[in-house]
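batch_manifest entry 22 of 60
target: TetR/AcrR family transcriptional regulator
source organism: Paradevosia tibetensis
requested by: lab member K.T.
priority: normal
notes from requester: please return tokens only, no post-processing; we will run our own comparison against the previous entry in this batch. if the run fails, retry once and flag.
--- input ---
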Amino acid sequence: MPVAKVKKSAEQVERAGVRSQDPEGTRQNIIEIASEEFALNGLAGARIDEIAARTRSSKRMIYYYFGDKEGLYLSALENAYRLVREGESKLDIGGLDPIAALRRIVEFTFDHHHKHEDFIRMVMIENIHHAQYLEKSEVIRDLNVTAIGTIESLYARGVEAGLFRESLDPIELHWQISALCFFNVSNRATFSKIFGRDIGTPQAQDSLRANSVDMVLRYVVRPEHLSAD
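--- output ---
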């Protein structure tokens, strides 16, 4: 039998085996490991060989699922955004009063970013690439439309109840919340070294979390209602 046909048969067997066992699990495993590699080494520095060595798959299967390294990177980026948006969707803030709901969103964002440093690094890497890969993704655009929709709905409820200041931009509000929580991870190491104070200690993180919530509430909530929270 010709060598080419033997190789082709081996590929078919491998693909069929993975598909019959747990194709989605295999794909997700690759994405999770790849996310760690991209977050650590960037798009240029990450190596498919290293990713394959750490997964329950092979280099050939990675290309089968994702096409190339850039395809894998985009899938990892989409997964990172999906995780944060799925977490937001589970907050169940609809039954809370607007001030309590806003507090919960800020607390969730701070905690999520603190626990998922790979997400922050992936976003930083994508900004280095001027969001050229993110721009290709309808998945990420749809996910973030949902995030802004949540903020818009909450803000409208707060204004209608006379609790929130009027004429604020929900996208800018989302920006401010993200900025406070993002910087806590992205610049923690440099800030700690420059000022000789470990910002990553539990005590420092508790203080920053509480202050981040307080800053957002003072920006959004009408002064006469701040004490009610």
